[in-house]
Structure formats: structure tokens, C-alpha cells
User: Which sequence fits this backbone?
């Protein structure tokens, strides 16, 4: 049982590294030793490196390299987090696939860097990241999270590298790509602690109506909230879908995509000061609970519910399962949803049409505010927060890597694959080659988690970016998708950004979010004559549980910002 | 017995205990210094040692939270109900199975009864919704078709308690019977024959033969259950619960998850954990003492 | 006559009540099987109850053709067997001495163990411990930290204490050591409870995956339940899809595949109990007493 040799395939298929490892590591791996496939060897080697960094045992690497001589003992190892969603296709693993090889060959090998990808389970990302951070070592050089709270916490506790200078020094392309607008989201009191990915499409929501029902009843498409109410009533009374009384005129759930478009359309036009101070940000999302108009929105929902115009069990539907079931069964007349969600292959619309060939679902923009606009929230222009922990000794290489990704057509290649094999360019928009072999399609299975500097495809401007989504849909839904994606970008309300984190939000945010959902449910379901008293009581409770603290801190922060 | 004689006789016992004690020392007591997080303002990057001491501040903060009091109350309430309903259920089920005469059915049903234990809560959540939903749940479909009003099993907090208990019994009773069935193998069948000669009825036999033989197991499980009165699993209340019944379904584990883990406040999470540990230990010692006095049996 | 009649009534009621409960326990399982065999359309429209609609086996052929699933099954079986054997040995080693009231220091050790039922250091120090022992990303990280459950230990102690003292004493008069008594008398007499605890340990290991999320990074060491969890979680991220730039559209796995995977991961452990039932033989202990 002395030293044994394994083939190390981090990134490059050509690279071989002999590893000499200690007894401890052998013992660790003894169980799986027999099944020595190439993929196994990769991860074993990866874990050895990890263990070696974890402390103690030595791990000498000596490279024997076929095509490049760079894989020598001088090579630096750059560790990059990658989300593991457990969906690696046949022949790939999360740490060894087309894209990891692409990165190694095009960035790693030429720069004498070994790229090492550290998988973190998607669903446990913050939990695992917290533990990695707290345990001091093993932390990858590049980590990321979608959770702004986690980012702020790390930054405030002094765990992140200030990237301001590094970015100037090593990241000119990156800086240009991300733009100042995006970068502002990663700054805290003037320091660049994070690099937020750039989001390509900011639209969130659209609404959808059963056009065939309207046609059957000879009704026009409703243009305002009032007209919508009349239409919903007609759906209920005349039951154009012949559901036998089971009709759900307005499909609702307790997920933001369903209630946000409705609620925000009731919010009165506000001054800048109001929007900064009265908005409450809970878990990365702005909530209008204290804004003028919120009560009207609740009162409207209460009316719809008590008149039987809305999903009766909406308060149980956290993940929209029931909503999509009802839509596909043809029970729902109108609903709001994430803009392109209904159009995926085998998605809501496709299933609805399988159940009822005559069903027609149209994207519409109905909810109207008092100015006649259709306000709805949009995304902040960022995706995940990319961070470099202070413990990292390779901050410069990390920035170089991200800069490489932002330069030339590297990002485009990572997102779209090989021209002619994965896609064909039509009017500058890459159209996915649907008939490609699985092997080719699977190349890009985790491009969203590998091409971390961008959220969605970047083709130069918002219309083209949207077009990239459109051409990815089944052909017969492309026109509808285009419409929905236009609606979701119209009259949008931008999220509010302070130049420093609001601590009360970090502290009370998740609790208040639960409280907020409770408020919606209770105010919607309460008998109309008890509405006012319930409203007063719920708002009081909300403020007492941290809402007031957030309000005070935001007011103070706004004043400080204006000085 | 003097010490040398004693050791000569018992050294093998201590040898046996060596590895288990070592295990507890390394894997359980080794990480226990983490408890001091409760007394520190925990900073991920300073680590446990480097973080600043804050004394009992975090305890004061937690005890002052309205959500803490509420979730503590709910935890005790749900556990108490479980103790009354879900604790006896496996016992009754085990006795019923034991009384069953048809051997093949007995074997098959034992296996089927413990299936629910293997179904993940996410899936159970979906099924509960389909069965108990107000608008289109299976039960309410029947109720409304008979002309009654639908019962809000999931949205009314009192009805929800019923749903919570029923699902708990369904999920755990079959699994819980296994330990009783193991204990029942110890009964001397001749006792039943003797009872037959005396002309004892079925209930009589259950009362004076079956149950007494289960007593040590029941008492042991009861003591442990009492120790866990303040601990509660996360998934069952979280998955079966919903926004409408948060007044009852919000418990310590969901509170810790929300405040401690989701918001990254490990100090708060540790404080609640420590509180639960102390109370749990007091409960289990109290239950142990009571059982020693009342049933002449103890786990210590 | 009257007694016999009452007895029959009892049997009938008992049988019917059990039958109902058995059906209630079986239904969800049938539901999952039905989902695994149904078409995407019928599942999404909520038409599937316990009878499959538009039957197809594609989900199963997909699961079985996935070599990582099969490998994961193999690993999980190995892990579970290793874990269970080590746990049972350790638990017996602890339970036997602690079942002797005469043992000096017994109370102190019991207290030492019971403390750990309630107090724990939390996830961060536990991770640091596992890392410092160089167990990260190895099978031992999933075995060693869970070797003895104090709860199962207490149960085993209470069963050991029920072994009649007379038996042990007679063995010791014969000159048997404690080791011999343990192996030749105590263990054979305790087979039902040992089978039960093995089942408990095995099922706990089989179904557990939270430790793997923290300690394991190599896909080769993914237990089935972790793969299953990821599969289920992936579908929960439909809300996250738009957050993540909808790059994950093809990440969505069909419900039937999820259900087929659940069945694939559950059936192997379900058949353990029927197999263990042979150790649930009545009267082992009493037979020995008389003999």
C-alpha cells in the first residue's frame, strides 16, 4: 500500500499529473479504489488537492504534459465555485465537462493555471458557503451567491477582498462589460466587495387571458383593472369554458408572480423620497406594504375573493402547482405569471392545448394605475454576486479569469457553444440547433452556472437579448413569447438601491416576508365587514415585528444619502 | 468487594466501553465548543474564537422576540397533542397486529404500514394538499357532494391541528410499531394458554399479559419523548403548515430556520438550541426521576 | 359460546380496521407509482390518482440507463451495510456494560451520553472536526460521526436488562467471561431487538443526506437520496428560473422521472424489513430460559 498514481484531468484532457498521497488519503479512498474510471480519478484527485489544502498532508504534483509544457510545478491552482444541481448528463460530471475543459484549454493552460471547480449544491448554497467561510480554509477563490443578504453580511464582517484596484489593474474588459450601473450593486461605502453579474433581461411579469373565452362571449380584451373586473364577472357567470361551475376567473397563488402585478398597479405614483423610505426590501425583493395604495390593492383582492372570482385555495399554493394544474385543466380565465413561463415545451400552454385544442392564451397588460399606466416590478440589472474571499491568495488570477470571460467572444462561446453544431446565427441572434445530437446539446447544460459574469445571453442590446429567449421557444409560441417579454418590460418599477445595506432588513427580512404573506392571505380572505379592523391590526403587528425598524433606518439612510 | 477483585471481574466491561466513550468524546464533545457561539457576536471570518463576547445579550434579545414566545408555545402544544395521540398509536397498532391470526396478512401489513415513513415530506405535502384541500380536496369533494359545507382542514387553525395529528399518526405509527413488535416476541405463549383455561376474554388478556410485557419499552420511549417535548422536527410543521395557520404551525424549528439560518444569525440559532437543550435535559431527568418512583424503572 | 362469538367479533373488527389502515398507507405509494408511469400532460393537469394515465415506461428506462444512478445505488448499499454493521457493534459494546447496575461509574457514563442527546456544537465546529480528521469527501465522513445513537442505545440497554439474570449467572458459574456471556447468551437472545435497531440504523443512513451536502463533493460518493433530493429541488427552482436568467429551462425534469427515481431509491430499503422479519420469532428468550 504505497503511493499510487492517478490520472488527473482537471480541465485539460491532455494533462497528466502524478499524485503522491499519504496513507490517510489512501484509506479515505480505499473504498472506491476499485472503480477507477477516468471521472473517478478526476474527483479523487480533486479531493486530494482539497484535503491537502485543508491542512497537513503534502501533495506533490509533477506534470507530464503531451502538448503544452505549462502544466508544471509552477502552475497556480484557481478554485472556482460551481453550482451542482445534480443534472450532469451522461459522460459529464460537474467538475469535468465541455465547459470546464473549454475554460482550462482557453484560459487555464495558456496562463499556466489549473482551473479547479468546487461543486456546491444549489439548494444549500448559502449554508455550505457559510460553513466553508467559517471554517477558514478550503474556500474557493471565486464564490458567488444570489442572496444579497449573504453578500452584505460577508462584506460587513470583513471577509471579502476589496476589488477596486484589482479591477483597474487586471479587469479592463470585465469593467467595461459589467458597466458602472451593475458594479454599483457590488459596492459598499465606496468599496467594490462584489462583482454582480450583468442581467440581460430585466422584465419579470406578464398577464395572460383566455382569448377563446373572450371571443365566445363577444367581449373585448380588457384594458383596465375595472374592465378586468367586469370580464372576470362574465367568466364567472357565463362560464364560457363549460367547467361546470368550477371556473376560476382569476388564477392566484401565494407566489409573487401572481400577486405582485396586481398589488403594484394599485400603488399611487410616488415621490423619490417616498419610494426610498416607505418601500420595504425583504429577502432581495421590494414590498409596497407601507406605500399609499396598498390598502386599495388588498381591498380589491378581498372583493374578488369574497365574490368567488379568485382561486379559493390560493393561500396553500406556495409553488404554483395548483395554479398550473388549474390553468392546464382549462379552469382559469386570467392570471399573471413570470413572463415566458407558460410557453416552455411541455409547459402550461402546451399542456392546456393538449387538453383542449381550441384553447388560446394571450399575453395581455391589464392592471392599470390611476395614471393609466401598467406598473409592475422589474429585476435589478444584476444576477449573482461574485465575490473573492479575503482568504484567497489568488485574487489577481481570479480577476484575470473573469476578465478573460468578458473579453473577445469567450462569453458568447461559453453560452452558445460551437457555431454550426450548437447554433446558427440568424440576424445576429444564435438560434439553437434543435436537431443536434444530445452529446452536442449537453455541452451547455450548466452554462448559466459557468458563465457567471452574465445572467442570460448578452447580444448587445435588450431587444436582441429578448430575441435570444424567443427563438429558444417552440415555434408556434414564439410570437406570444415576444409579446409577453415586451409587456414585462413596459412601465416597470425599478428596485431601490441604497449605498449601504439596511441592517434591519437583514435582521427581520425573512420573518417579515412570512408576515407579509400572512397579511395578504388574511386580508384577502377576511369577511368584507371586518376588513378595516383586520388591516389596522395586521399593519400594527407588521410594524412591531421589525417593519418600523426598517422604516426608521431607511428614512435615516435616505437623509444621509441626500446630504 | 475490594477494588482489585472488582476490577479483575469487571475489566472486560470497561474494555467494551472504551471505544464508545471515545466516540462520544471525539464526535460529540469535540465540536461542543460551538456552544459558546451563543455568548458571542458571531463573525464568519473571525471564527468562533475570534468573535466578540457579548455575554447574555443574545439570550435577552431572543427571549424578547414575540415570535420566540409564540413558537415556543406552539412547539409545546403540538408536542403535547402528539404525546396524547401519536405516542399511543403505534402501541395500539402493534397490539392489533399481534392479535391478528392470519400470518401472511400480518407479515404483509407490517411491511406496508411502515411505507409512509419512507415517503419524503415534500411528496407528503403534495398529497396532503390533494386530500385535505378546501376547494378540490378528496375529502371535501365527498363532503360537499353530500350537501355539507367544505371543512377548511388546512386553512382554519383548529381544523389544521386535526390534520397535523392525523398526518403524523399516518406517517409514523407503522414505523413505531416495529420496536413494540420486537418486544412482543419476548412473551411466553403459555401464559395465553393458561389464561384461556381461566376463561379470560381478549381484552383481559391484552390488559394483563400483552401490555405488561411491553411496559419497559413503553416507559423508556415515554421518558425519551418527554425529553423531546421542546424539540420539534422542521419538516412536518413546515410542509403541512401554511400561511393561514401560522398562528399554530410556526414552531421553534421553523423560527430558527428563518431567523438563524436564512438570515445567517448563527448566534440566535445557537441560543435557541442551547435553550432547548437545557430544557430537554431537565425534562428527561425529571421524567426519569418520576419513572423511578412510580414504575421502578429508569434509564440513568 | 358467548366468548367465542365475542372473540370472532374482535378478530373481525381488528382485521377490518387494520385493512383500512393498510390501504391508507399503501395509497400514496401507489400514487407515486402511478405518477412514474403517466404522461406529462396528465400529471400537470392533475388527473393522476392511483391509476396511471397514458402509461409509458420511459421514466424507468431513463433511470435505469443512467449509469450514475446505478453506481449511486451500489455506493449507497455499501455505505448502508458498512454503517449498520459498525453502528450495531458499537451500540452493543456500549449497551452491555451499561445494562449492569453493578458497574461502577455507570451513571456517570450514562449521563455523559445523555448530555449528547441534547447538546451539540452545531454545524460549523462539526465540519471543522471532520475536516481536521481528514475525512472530508470520503465514505468515513458519512459513517463515523453517527456511530451510536443515544436513543437506540437506551432502547438496547432496556432490552438487555430484561434478559433474566438467572441465565447470565448460570453462565458465569460455568466460568464464562463477560465476553463469552455476551456472545453466547445475550446476543442470541436479543436478535429481535438487534434486527430492529439494525433496521433503524440502516434506514436512517439510507434516507439521510444532509451530511452529504456538507461533507461530500465527489459525485462518486453521492448516495441515492442526495441525487433524489437534487432532482426534487431542481423542480422546486421553477421560481428561480427567471431569477437565474431562465438559463435553466432544460434543467426541469419531468415529474414522472422524479417519481420513478423515488421508487428506485425506496424499494431496496423497503424490502429490508420483510427480510428481517425472520428474526422476529416469538419466545426465543423463554425457550432459552427453560433449556
Assistant:
Amino acid at each position: 500500500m504505497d503511493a499510487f498514481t492517478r490520472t488527473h484531468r482537471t480541465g485539460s484532457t491532455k494533462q497528466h499529473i502524478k499524485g503522491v498521497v499519504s496513507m490517510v488519503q489512501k484509506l479515505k479512498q480505499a473504498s472506491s479504489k476499485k472503480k477507477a474510471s477516468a471521472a473517478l480519478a478526476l474527483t479523487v484527485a480533486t479531493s486530494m488537492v482539497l484535503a491537502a489544502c485543508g491542512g497537513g498532508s503534502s501533495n506533490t504534483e509533477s506534470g507530464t504534459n503531451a502538448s503544452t509544457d505549462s502544466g508544471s510545478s509552477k502552475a497556480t491552482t484557481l478554485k472556482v465555485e460551481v453550482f451542482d444541481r445534480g443534472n450532469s448528463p451522461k459522460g459529464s460530471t460537474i467538475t469535468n465537462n465541455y465547459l470546464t475543459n473549454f475554460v482550462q484549454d482557453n484560459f487555464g493552460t495558456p496562463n499556466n493555471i489549473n482551473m479547479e471547480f468546487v461543486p456546491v449544491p444549489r439548494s444549500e448554497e448559502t449554508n455550505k458557503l457559510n460553513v466553508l467561510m467559517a471554517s477558514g480554509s478550503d474556500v474557493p477563490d471565486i464564490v458567488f451567491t444570489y442572496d444579497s443578504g449573504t453578500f452584505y453580511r460577508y462584506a460587513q464582517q470583513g471577509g471579502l477582498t476589496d476589488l477596486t484596484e484589482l479591477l483597474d489593474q487586471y479587469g479592463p474588459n470585465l469593467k467595461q462589460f459589467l458597466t458602472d450601473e451593475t458594479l454599483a450593486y457590488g459596492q459598499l461605502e465606496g468599496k467594490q466587495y462584489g462583482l454582480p453579474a450583468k442581467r440581460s433581461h430585466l422584465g419579470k411579469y406578464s398577464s395572460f387571458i383566455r382569448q377563446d373565452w373572450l371571443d365566445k362571449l363577444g367581449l373585448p380584451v380588457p384594458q383596465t383593472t375595472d374592465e378586468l373586473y367586469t370580464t372576470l364577472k362574465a367568466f364567472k357567470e357565463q362560464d364560457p369554458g363549460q367547467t361546470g361551475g368550477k371556473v376560476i376567473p382569476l388564477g392566484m397563488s401565494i407566489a409573487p408572480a401572481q400577486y405582485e402585478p396586481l398589488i403594484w398597479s394599485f400603488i399611487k405614483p410616488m415621490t423619490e423620497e417616498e419610494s426610498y423610505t416607505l418601500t420595504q426590501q425583504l429577502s432581495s425583493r421590494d414590498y409596497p406594504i407601507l406605500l399609499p395604495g396598498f390598502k386599495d390593492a388588498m381591498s380589491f383582492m378581498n372583493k374578488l375573493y369574497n365574490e368567488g372570482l379568485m382561486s379559493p385555495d390560493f393561500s396553500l399554493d406556495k409553488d404554483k402547482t395548483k395554479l398550473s394544474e388549474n390553468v392546464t385543466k382549462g379552469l382559469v380565465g386570467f392570471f399573471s405569471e413570470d413572463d415566458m413561463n407558460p410557453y416552455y415545451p411541455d409547459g402550461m400552454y402546451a399542456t392546456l392545448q393538449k387538453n383542449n385544442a381550441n384553447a388560446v392564451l394571450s399575453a395581455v397588460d391589464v392592471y392599470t394605475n390611476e395614471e393609466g399606466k401598467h406598473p409592475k416590478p422589474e429585476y435589478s440589472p444584476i444576477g449573482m454576486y461574485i465575490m473573492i474571499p479575503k482568504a484567497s491568495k489568488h485574487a489577481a488570477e481570479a480577476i484575470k479569469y473573469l476578465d478573460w470571460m468578458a473579453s473577445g467572444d469567450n462569453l458568447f462561446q461559453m453560452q452558445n457553444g460551437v457555431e454550426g453544431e450548437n447554433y446558427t446565427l440568424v440576424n445576429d441572434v444564435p438560434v439553437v440547433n434543435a436537431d443536434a445530437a444530445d452529446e452536442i446539446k449537453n455541452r451547455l447544460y450548466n452554462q448559466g452556472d459557468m458563465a457567471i459574469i452574465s445572467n442570460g445571453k448578452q447580444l448587445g442590446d435588450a431587444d436582441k437579448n429578448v430575441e435570444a429567449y424567443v427563438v429558444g421557444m417552440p415555434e408556434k409560441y414564439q410570437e406570444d413569447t415576444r409579446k409577453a417579454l415586451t409587456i414585462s418590460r413596459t412601465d416597470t418599477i425599478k428596485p431601490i438601491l441604497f449605498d449601504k445595506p439596511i441592517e434591519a432588513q437583514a435582521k427581520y427580512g425573512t420573518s417579515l416576508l412570512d408576515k407579509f404573506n400572512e397579511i395578504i392571505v388574511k386580508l384577502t380572505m377576511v369577511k368584507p365587514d371586518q376588513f378595516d379592523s383586520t388591516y389596522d391590526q395586521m399593519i400594527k403587528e407588521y410594524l412591531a415585528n421589525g417593519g418600523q425598524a426598517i422604516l426608521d433606518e431607511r428614512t435615516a439612510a435616505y437623509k444621509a444619502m441626500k446630504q | 468487594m475490594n477494588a482489585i477483585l472488582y476490577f479483575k471481574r469487571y475489566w472486560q466491561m470497561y474494555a467494551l466501553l472504551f471505544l464508545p466513550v471515545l466516540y462520544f468524546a471525539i464526535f460529540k464533545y469535540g465540536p461542543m465548543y460551538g456552544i459558546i457561539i451563543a455568548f458571542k457576536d458571531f463573525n464568519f471570518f473571525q471564527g468562533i474564537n475570534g468573535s466578540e463576547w457579548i455575554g447574555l445579550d443574545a439570550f435577552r434579545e431572543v427571549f424578547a422576540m414575540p415570535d420566540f414566545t409564540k413558537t415556543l408555545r406552539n412547539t409545546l402544544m403540538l408536542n403535547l397533542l402528539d404525546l396524547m395521540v401519536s405516542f399511543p398509536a403505534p402501541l395500539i397498532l402493534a397490539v392489533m397486529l399481534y392479535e391478528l391470526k392470519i400470518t401472511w396478512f400480518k407479515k404483509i401489513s407490517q411491511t406496508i404500514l411502515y411505507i409512509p415513513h419512507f415517503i419524503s415530506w415534500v411528496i407528503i405535502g403534495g398529497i396532503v394538499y390533494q386530500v385535505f384541500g378546501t376547494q378540490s380536496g378528496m375529502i371535501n369533494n365527498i363532503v360537499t357532494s353530500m350537501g355539507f359545507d367544505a371543512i377548511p382542514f388546512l386553512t382554519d387553525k383548529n381544523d389544521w391541528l386535526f390534520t397535523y395529528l392525523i398526518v403524523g399518526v399516518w406517517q409514523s405509527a407503522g414505523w413505531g410499531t416495529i420496536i413494540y413488535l420486537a418486544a412482543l416476541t419476548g412473551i411466553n405463549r403459555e401464559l395465553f394458554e393458561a389464561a384461556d383455561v381461566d376463561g379470560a376474554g381478549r381484552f383481559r388478556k391484552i390488559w394483563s399479559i400483552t401490555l405488561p410485557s411491553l411496559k419497559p419499552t413503553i416507559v423508556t420511549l415515554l421518558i425519551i419523548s418527554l425529553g423531546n417535548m421542546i424539540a420539534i422536527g422542521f419538516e412536518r410543521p413546515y410542509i403541512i403548515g401554511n400561511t393561514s395557520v401560522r398562528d399554530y404551525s410556526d414552531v421553534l424549528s421553523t423560527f430558527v430556520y428563518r431567523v438563524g439560518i436564512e438570515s445567517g444569525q448563527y448566534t440566535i440559532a445557537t441560543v435557541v438550541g442551547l435553550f432547548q437543550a437545557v430544557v430537554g435535559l431537565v425534562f428527561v431527568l425529571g421524567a426519569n426521576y418520576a419513572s423511578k418512583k412510580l414504575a421502578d424503572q429508569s434509564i440513568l | 359460546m358467548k366468548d367465542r362469538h365475542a372473540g370472532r367479533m374482535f378478530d373481525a373488527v381488528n382485521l377490518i380496521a387494520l385493512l383500512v389502515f393498510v390501504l391508507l398507507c399503501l395509497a400514496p405509494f401507489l400514487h407515486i407509482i402511478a405518477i412514474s408511469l403517466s404522461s406529462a400532460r396528465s400529471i400537470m393537469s392533475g388527473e393522476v390518482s392511483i391509476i396511471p394515465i397514458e402509461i409509458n415506461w420511459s421514466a424507468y428506462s431513463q433511470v435505469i440507463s443512467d449509469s450514475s444512478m446505478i453506481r449511486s445505488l451500489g455506493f449507497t448499499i455499501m455505505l448502508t451495510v458498512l454503517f449498520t454493521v459498525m453502528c450495531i457493534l458499537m451500540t452493543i459494546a456500549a449497551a452491555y456494560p451499561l445494562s449492569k447496575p453493578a458497574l461502577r461509574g455507570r451513571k456517570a457514563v450514562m449521563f455523559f451520553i445523555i448530555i449528547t442527546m441534547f447538546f451539540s456544537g452545531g454545524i460549523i465546529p462539526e465540519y471543522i472536526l471532520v475536516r481536521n480528521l481528514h475525512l472530508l469527501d470520503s465514505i468515513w465522513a458519512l459513517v463515523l460521526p453517527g456511530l451510536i445513537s443515544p436513543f437506540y442505545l437506551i432502547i438496547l440497554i432496556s432490552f438487555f436488562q430484561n434478559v433474566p439474570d438467572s441465565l447470565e449467572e448460570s453462565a458465569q458459574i460455568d466460568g464464562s467471561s463477560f465476553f463469552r456471556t455476551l456472545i453466547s447468551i445475550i446476543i442470541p437472545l436479543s436478535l429481535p431487538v438487534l434486527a430492529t435497531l439494525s433496521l433503524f440504523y440502516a434506514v436512517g443512513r439510507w434516507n439521510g443526506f444532509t451530511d452529504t451536502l456538507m461533507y461530500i463533493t465527489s459525485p462518486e460518493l453521492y448516495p441515492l437520496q442526495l441525487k433524489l433530493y437534487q432532482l426534487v429541488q431542481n423542480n422546486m427552482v421553477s421560481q428561480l428560473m427567471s431569477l437565474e436568467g431562465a438559463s435553466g429551462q432544460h434543467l426541469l425534469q419531468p415529474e414522472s422521472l422524479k417519481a420513478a427515481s423515488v421508487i428506485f431509491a425506496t424499494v431496496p430499503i423497503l424490502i429490508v424489513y420483510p427480510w428481517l422479519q425472520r428474526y422476529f420469532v416469538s419466545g426465543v428468550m423463554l425457550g432459552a430460559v427453560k433449556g
About this structure: Residues 2-44 of chain C form one domain. The first helix of chain C runs from residue 2 to 37. Chain C has two domains: 2-44, 65-277. Confidence is low (pLDDT under 50) at residues 286-291 of chain C.
